[in-house]
Amino acid sequence: MLLGPALGVSAILFSIGVLGVLIRRNAIIIFMCVELMLNAVNLSFVALAQQLGTDGQVFVFFVMTVAAAEAAVGFAIIIAIYRHKETLDLQNLNLLRG
Amino acid sequence: MLEAVFWANAGIAIVSALACITRRSPVASALWLIMTLFATAVMFVLLDAHFIAVLQVMVYSGAIMVLFLFVIMLLNLGDQSATDMKGWFGRVVGLALGVFVMVELWVITKVVPVDQIRLPAGELNRMTVDEGAIAPVAQVLYTTYLLPFLLTAILLLAAIAGAVVLAKREV
Amino acid sequence: MIWLAVLLPFLGFLVNGWLSFFRPDAKRAVSVIGVGVLVASFISALAGVVGLAGAVHDAPYIVHMWSWMPVGELQVDLAFQVDELSAVMLMVVTGVGALIHVFSVGYMREDRSYPRYFAYLNLFVFFMLVLILGANFPVLFIGWEGVGLCSYLLIGFWFDDEAKATAGKKAFIMNRIGDFGLLLAMFMIFRAVGSLDFLEVFDAAPAAFVTNGPEITLITLLLFLGCIGKSAQIPLYTWLPDAMAGPTPVSALIHAATMVTAGVYLIARTNILFAMAPVSGAVVALVGAVTALFAATIALKQWDIKKVLAYSTVSQLGFMFVAVGVGAYAAGIFHLVTHAFFKALLFLGAGSVIHVMHHAYHHTHSGEDAQDMRNMGGLRKFMPWTAAVMWVATLAIAGVPGLSGFFSKDQILAEAFARGQGAFLFYVIWALGAVAALLTAFYMTRLMLYTFHGPNRTGEAEAKQLHEAPWVMTGPLVVLAAGSALGGFLNLPHVLPGAGWLEHWLKPVTEGSVPYLSEAHLSAGLEWRLMGLATLIAAAGMIAAWYFLKPDRLGAAKAAPAEAGVQRVLLNNYYVDELYNTLIVRPTDWVSRKVLWRIIDMGAIDGAVVHGAAKVSRLLGWIGTRFQTGNLGTYVVLFVIGVLFVLSAVAG
Amino acid sequence: MSGFLASIGYGQWVLEAIMIVPLLGALIVMMGPSAQAKKIALGVALVEFVLSLGLWWAFDQGTALMQFEVYHEWIPAWGIAYHLGIDGISLFMVLLTTFMMPLTILGSWNYIKEREGPFYALMLVLTTGMLGVFVALDMFLFYVFWEIMLIPMYFIIGVWGGARRIYATIKFFVFTFFGSLLMLVAILVMYYVVGRETGEYSFSYRHLLNNTQYLGQWAFWLFGAFFLAFAIKVPMFPFHTWLPDAHVEAPTPGSVILAGILLKMGAYGFLRFAVPFFPHVALDPTVATIVVTLAVVGIIYGALVALVQPDFKKLIAYSSVSHLGFVMLGIWALTLQSIQGAIVIMINHGISTGALFFMAGMMYERRHTREIADFGGIARVVPAFAAVLTLVALSSIGLPGTNGFVGEFLVLIGSFSQYPVATAIATTGVIFAAMYILLALQRILFGKLDNPANKKMQDLSIRELFVLGPLVVCIVWIGLYPAPILRRVEVSAQALVTQVRGQLPVQAKAIPEEQQPLGKFGDDK
Amino acid sequence: MGMVVNLATPAGLFWGMLPEIVLTGWALALMLVAGWRHGGEEDQRFAGQLALAALVSTLFALWWLWAKDARPDGIALMIALDGFRYASSTIFLLGAIMTVMLSLGYVRRERIHTPEYYLLILFATIGMMVMSAAADLIVLFLGLEIMSICVYVLTGINRRSVFGAEAALKYFLLGAFASGFLIYGIALIYGATGTTNLTLIAVSITNLGLQSNGMLMAGIGLLIIGFAFKVGAVPFHMWTPDVYEGAPTPITAFMAAAVKAAAFAALMRIMVHSLGESIGTWQNAVWWLAVVTMLGGNLMALAQRRLKRMLAYSSIAHAGYLLTAVVSGTETGAAAYLFYAFAYTLVTLGAFGVLAVVGRNGERDVRIDDLAGLAAKRPWLAFAMAVFMLSLLGFPGTAGFMAKWYVLMSAIEADQWKLGIILVLASVVSAGYYLPVVMEMYMNQPITEEAHQESVAVGAGRWVIGATAALLLLIGFFPGRLMDVSRSSSDDLKPSAAFTLNAPTGPDAGMASR
């Protein structure tokens, strides 16, 4: 019933996440946008699960775990870079290029 | 009725998401993201995923987002006044691309699953009523998806090890 | 025996060549070997010819050495063919060659590369024999190009002088232009007949070709192109005057008596083909006549004694081509033989003059030109023998009755005149030849006057050094003088008793062409009248020279005023060399250097395509890495573009 | 002689032996002391030559079948085998290679002064690579050899070469690589097309050759790829620009090998592969017109550009373009005479141009310059050198009596019946050849000896005479008595002509079994 | 048929996952040891040796399974048991082993005294093995994440290096971003087919006629995007040079070889096994990706003077070649992948090994010119490097050629001859940057007398360089055995007809087979 709308909303949220990644420069906020994308995917899974069985919900569980793991590592990296550069603005992080 | 609630939450989720990606302050962004997550949790409930909705609130909004805020505060980014938005050019390009992605996704995901693989209507709701919110999920998770479940353990272990090694202060 | 005649000069070449590296001072051995092989070769050739004459033969005598290029249908053997025509040539080449070898012993005595000289000379004789004895076109071609090579080597014998080396090169290249025609002719003959053996080709020709058809005409014209190159006819004659850069005996042997007549020989050899292509025959005759006249005009105004003789040679070769062009093959060969005698004699005589002059100037370290007639004069006092024999030759070439040149030249003109009844063109040719004969008499007399008569202009000190050449040089002159005087009896006119011996002798070779030749018969009266006219012409030329030229008033070369007007044009050979330079040589060089090499090779292929591709690749790579800003924002933008791209590709 | 060879089973092991001996030699050279490297290498090359010389007698000139075959499974899953064999066309390429190698090693005796071990090892490896190209009967194997000998050559030019060696090597490499990779694609396409039609997937040369009729529409494109690979190697105009650079920068032995043998691979490729595989395309009027035009343009163009070269090696390089144009003309005319002529030119060019490069190297060793203008009049001081150079130059311009004439004459006379106009234009090449060669000769040997540095030039040493002597002998020998060579080539060349022409009238028709020039795959195994 | 494993039972799962379990056990042990002994150089070496032992024993476990020819009972659920898995896992393990061997010397020189370095390599290897073993998109996703997370950390593990940190951050952010696309793709495929099992996806597509289903197409597209990022295909390649440059050299090698190989293994399995029948939907997209990747990688590498970056771009180009094998969508393509991945792993490890030796401290700035005259000073090292470069170039006589040949074969077998031509043209371009390396080493003189004094390969690193070079040559001339293995390992990658025709489809399909 709500499958179509939910998938649509999911697509919109996903696109907003992509848009966020596109227009922001702060590493943390970009990371938040990625989380937003994952969340949108979760919505798709859940919506599909309503039609296809609980497998979809299990997938959400896994995605959340992945998000958590990514968060852990991501913050460690962010902290590491912050120690070196005192900034999280990606514009200033371009030692490696060419 | 249900649809109204769904649409209301969908609106909230979208607006909060937009706010999240446009607020200057990382803290505000994080809070708006939490808002989106909550609205999504409500939609989960409407889609018969009660247990996942709970997880959403607890793990996502609770744990992960707190971590975000924590790091923001730790790194003292909260009061950053200058925006980290890209310049107008970057924003225009970003917006254009984002819209394109949206259109493209919208166009090609309008299709719903074919009938042969769909459960009878209300099946999931019936299972929840019969077996409770957790059991149908757990049933699958611990049998069919035992292996992935175990893998998440390794995943988290690796993540912990990695986080530790990177975040350790001594060099 | 014939193979011995061929082999001996080659052995001489090998031995002399070896000596030139390891015993360059062994001049006596070189002389013995160099001359010896020639004499031996002459004797064995003579034996062969006598054998041939004595044999009852209905086919040429073929010597197969080995199979040279056996490829399917194409079967080329290294084989020699001895018949009447090659016998005549054999005698001329070995006989005159031997005399010139002897002369060379004296002439080159003081040269530091004496062994090398004889090696080349022997090699030349070898190739010349291969040329005239070859039983098929490719073997003939070995000799044909081989003599060109020797000519090249001998013209550039004193290679330290850039100009001499260049002259050799020019000779070779011009010859090659002719050889191009010869090669193509061979290809066409092979395509038509399937063989390159003379006998097979000539036997098959009547059936294989349509008389006067385009194919046979083209073949013969191409053959003639080869002859033009080798025999220095218009337009490829300019190398021959330059070839005078070589030692004078070489000029006598190669550039007068033997090699340059190879073209005449070739046409005589392939007479049946030319007979089947009357248009080509006419072309041959016309080119010959025009060349005869043209070269004669240039000879009028040359100061270099050898240049006069060179243009004279070109002119006389023109006469020979008139003969073979009109189908009078025997007459052509006849003139070839007589010309060999008197022109060799003239050259050798000039050689002794130059030898002596050079000696004199060398003695006083004067830089004067030893070959310029303006520096000579009155030499008969110093060199009576030379003067006497050269007068014999001059009278012969001028066509004084009784001497060899009279008979041979007259015969040619008569034959041309006879064909005039068939086509008016031949009257023109006859007329051209007659004028050329007049001029011949004039310029030869001029040469003799300026060289041997009048006061001596050599110089006070130098004159003391002038003397007669040694016997080793004058000896051959005397022999040749005898030949020049008596050679005419080989083929007396029809109106005289004992006429046409040579023509008769050559009958087996030329009879195949008879059916194709138009009947040309002169009445005895007309023939007598033509002979009278020829005598008149010769007399007129000589008397005119005697009358107009004043050797007494001539100054030495360094004091000579610049020529002007027509004289200058003549002196400079009508500026033909300059014309060729401007029209062909320099444009070729320019196109090769600027267009082909710089623009096409380095510019278009290498520059535009090869380096262009490399540069474009690098540029594209560079552009690609410009996106690699190090800034994550850029990466995300490209990422999303990629997303759109992939999704479109999947959807579409 | 052949009885003796038969008694030692020569035919069975000769190909194996000549392929392996240089490799073993290379190993020994690498292991041994550097000072002895050249001696060992020379010994190995001589052994190799002697080994291969038996082919002259053991070769059966009465058959067009492959002889001395060697067959080992290599990658059976794909129908790839180590399959070698010799016919009349490859026989002389093999002999030329083994003949040139000892001379080349001897010729580099003093030229190579550093890193001798690797150099001579590479030369020996190169030998195997080149031989492999000429004897491979498996397309995959052929391709591997074809490419692999680039490497030794690449190092020889790049390490021991002149000042612009890096540029030259990369140009050489990339040109060749470009063509050969397209050929690789073509080989694979053939493999699949033929495999699908016949059910037998194999890279065997015979298998592919016997089934070319299945290639259909593919043939055109496949031919194009083969053509490009071979045309670059030959090199044909306008793919030739790598050659002058490679030649000029290469050390003497490199130039000799490059001119003497490597260029032959392109022509050999046409003879062995491109033309027999795709007869319809090769003899298609349009294609033939283009190829013949390029060949003729190459003849004239190479000669004209050679005319204005200030650098002697460059001049020789461009003259190669000209000479190989004759080869291409001969191949495309596809008559018995022209094919045989093309093969003879290939041999001749190896000998004559090899000798020219040797002499250019000798000049360079003495004077450290290759500029023609730096010489002049040296015939006075180095008469023996001058004599040999003159002879070689004359051979190069095809003076009758030298080897050069035999090849050019046969090609031209054979081609004339097919392409009279093109042949006529090509024949003018003999004029231009005379022009550039004589001009060079004149500038180098003749004229005033005005450069004091030239006055001290040494004449040929005994060693150099040993290098040039065999070449001079060959020049005269092939010039006067090429019949033994022609007879050995004849049957194979005839088979090629028959096979290719035989396919022409009827499209896509299987050749009857008994007419097939080559035995069927694996018959004798 | 060998050993039959019922994956629905715990015992079956145990046997089926034996290599991964062995490795996990070792990883846990290493973790304990690391907690106990960490800090010094000695401890670090011990950890390395432990990791080596772990990987080698895992390899034997894997080979045991392979020798037993273990096969699933019915449809492979969650994990596949087939030759493709064994072969590809072998490649990752070999890659990991060589990485550890290279690291032994490297970490000492760079003073990276964190035993987690090896631990993370082990975990990443587990992730890779899971990826290649995955018979379910979720398992695949988790394997990919395990691997990715470890590699993110490994990139930045040298905490003194700001380059490492920056590289890690870029890699992480883009990686997470790409993961979002991947999981979204999985979601859509799940939505379209009702399953995440690779075999059942194929079944669903065939039985339900989903070939032109919009959701499936979108899912495939997003999946391709996710993988394209992991393999570094243009235009998702932007991270590659930066990360390769910033990461410690052995880790760069590990990423270039094993990580890429793992992503391709998973991609190949999905494309051939699940989506082989619906090739029309994705072939076009991958075709274009392959083209732009081959050309882009090669062209951009041409512009590089820094060796490490050049190799990074070259790895992009090689990803393009491998995508060519994917385009064919056949088992030959999969076999080609196996061969290629093996050869490429060898060559990458070898080349980066040389780079690590030549580089010394701060190796990110090694320029091609710095290799000048290496051959004169260090002939064997230069020889090995020359072999690597020629192998990368795909020159006959090296394994690289055979690999490229195999890829070409797969493309042409699938009538993708245009792609074949583009591939060879791109290879020609690549000569423009591989050859200069050889030239510098052999044809130029060293810049200074002292150059290359310290460039000495020691210990295990020397063995890696030597062994890879030798193997590359060996395979170059005798590829038959390896080709047979590649072929036999992938000839059952397509789902057998029995499954596609008879298996039930529908919501209960998964349960029914359970």
Walkthrough of the structure:
The complex is a heteropentamer of chains A (98), B (171), C (652), D (525) and E (514). Chain A is mainly α and 98 residues long. Chain A has one domain (3-92): Helix Hairpins. Chain A has three helices and no strands. By secondary structure, chain B is mainly alpha-helical. Chain B is built from seven helices and no strands. In chain B, helix 1 runs antiparallel to helix 2 and helix 2 (26-46) runs antiparallel to helix 3 (50-74). The radius of gyration of chain B is 20 Å and the shape is globular. Chain D has 525 residues and is mainly alpha-helical. Chain D has a domain at 290-481. In chain D, 72% of the residues lie in helices and 3% in strands. Chain D is globular and about 75 Å long. The relative contact order of chain D is 0.10. With 514 residues, chain E is mainly alpha-helical. Chain E has a two-stranded parallel sheet. The longest helix of chain E is centred in the middle third of the chain and has 32 residues, at 162-193. Chain E is globular, with a radius of gyration of 22 Å.
Reading the helices and strands of chain B in chain order gives HHHHHHH
> What is the residue-averaged pLDDT of chain B?
84
Distance between the termini of chain B: 59 Å
**What's the helical proportion of residues of chain B?**
over 70%
How far apart, in Å, are the first and last alpha carbons of chain D?
Answer: 27 Å
**Chain pair sharing the greatest interface:** A-B, 68 and 84 residues
DSSP strand tally of chain D: 2
Which regions of chain B have little confidence, pLDDT < 50, spanning 5+ residues? none
- Overall geometry of chain B: globular
Radius of gyration of chain B over alpha carbons? 20 Å
CATH H-level superfamily title of the largest domain in chain B: NADH-ubiquinone/plastoquinone oxidoreductase chain 6, subunit NuoJ
The main sheet of chain B comes to:
none
Proportion of strand residues of chain D: under 5%
Care to count the β-strands of chain B? 0
Work out the helicity level of chain D.
over 70%
Give the arrangement of secondary structure elements.
The complex is a heteropentamer of chains A (98), B (171), C (652), D (525) and E (514).
Chain B: H1 2-22, H2 26-46, H3 50-74, H4 88-108, H5 123-131, H6 135-142, H7 146-167
Chain C: H1 2-22, H2 27-54, E1 61-71, E2 74-82, H3 84-107, H4 114-133, H5 137-155, H6 162-193, H7 198-208, H8 214-231, H9 239-242, H10 248-257, H11 262-269, H12 271-276, H13 278-299, H14 305-326, H15 329-364, H16 384-398, H17 404-419, H18 424-452, H19 460-463, H20 471-486, H21 501-505, H22 507-510, H23 524-548, H24 565-571, H25 576-626, H26 632-651
Antiparallel strand pairs in C: 1-2
Helix pairs in contact in C: 1-2, 1-4, 2-3, 2-4, 3-4, 3-10, 3-15, 3-20, 4-5, 5-6, 5-10, 6-8, 8-11, 8-13, 10-15, 11-14, 11-15, 13-14, 13-18, 14-15, 14-17, 14-18, 15-16, 15-17, 15-20, 16-17, 16-18, 16-20, 17-18, 17-23, 18-23
Chain E: E1 4-5, H1 10-16, H2 18-36, H3 41-68, E2 71-72, H4 83-110, H5 116-133, H6 137-155, H7 162-193, H8 198-208, H9 214-231, H10 239-246, H11 249-274, H12 279-302, H13 307-328, H14 331-359, H15 374-377, H16 379-393, H17 399-413, H18 417-443, H19 459-477, H20 480-490, H21 497-502, H22 509-513
Parallel strand pairs in E: 1-2
Helix pairs in contact in E: 2-3, 2-5, 3-4, 3-5, 4-5, 4-11, 4-14, 4-19, 4-20, 5-6, 5-11, 6-7, 6-11, 7-9, 7-10, 8-11, 9-11, 9-12, 10-11, 10-13, 11-13, 11-14, 12-13, 12-18, 13-14, 13-17, 13-18, 14-16, 14-17, 14-19, 14-20, 16-18, 16-19, 17-18, 17-19
